[in-house]
Amino acid sequence: MFVIKYCWEWFLLFMGLVYWAITAIVVSLTGTILIAILPQKTALSCGRFLLQKDFQFFIFLLKITGLLILDDEALKSLARRKEAMIIAPNHTALWDIVFIAAQVPEVVCVMKGSILNNPFLGGGARLAGYIPINSISQMLKLAVQRLKQNETLLMFPEGTRTKTDAQWLNPLKGGVALLAKRTKAPVVPVFIRSNTRFYEKGWPLYKKPDFPLKISFSVGEPVLIQKDESVQAFSQRLEQIYLDELAKPHPLRRVQNTEL
Question: I need a labelling partner for 60 at 20 to 30 A (CA). Which of 9, 103, 206, 238 fits?
C-alpha cells in the first residue's frame, strides 16, 4: 500500500510539472498576442482573468487529488478592498503568488524582470500589467503610479524566498517601506504558514515533499507609515510585526530545518 501511494504521489507531482509547463507556454503565447491587439485597459483585465482562472484550476486539481489542504479564506477580504494598498506576504515558496492571485485577481505583482522577459513565462504576466524589477528606480516609479491609481500591489518585503536557515523570515528589504513612504498607502501583512519547505529557496524542482501539503494564509491589520517616520524605522517596525506573528504557537508554525 505504501509503495502504491508513493508511486501515485510521484506521478501526480510529475503531472503537476507537466501542467505548469504546458499552461505557462499557452498563457504566455496568448498574452503576447493579446498585448498586441487589445487596448491596454482591456488587456489588463484579460490578463488578470486568465491568470486567476489558471491558478484557481491548478489549486482545484491539487485539492481533489488530496495533495493540498489549503486555508486561504482570509485572502478573500483583500479582494473586497478597493483602496490602494500593498499586500506584503512573507515568501515561503516559489508558488506563493499562485494562491494570492487566485483570490485577489486585480493584484499587480512586483516580480523579477527575468520572469517577465522570459518568452515561455512572461506573456501572461506582461498582459496582466505586472511590474518587473529590472531597475529599482523604474520599479518604484511604476509602482507609485499604480498605487496612485488606487490599484493593489503584491510585493514580498523579504525580496526573495525565505532562506532555509532563517528562523521565521529573511531580514526585510526596503522596497515596501519606501513605497509606503512615497504614497502613504497602507501595507497589509499576509502571514503564510506551511507544514513543508516545498519549493522554498534551494528546493530541487523534482524533489517530492511529504503529502498532503498544508498551507494557511492569515491577514494582518493594515500598517501605515507614521508622520516623520523614516523608511528604515518603518521597515524595522514592519519586520517585528512578522516576527511576533510567525513566532506564535500554530499547527503550521515554521520548524527549524537546514536539510533540503
Answer: 206
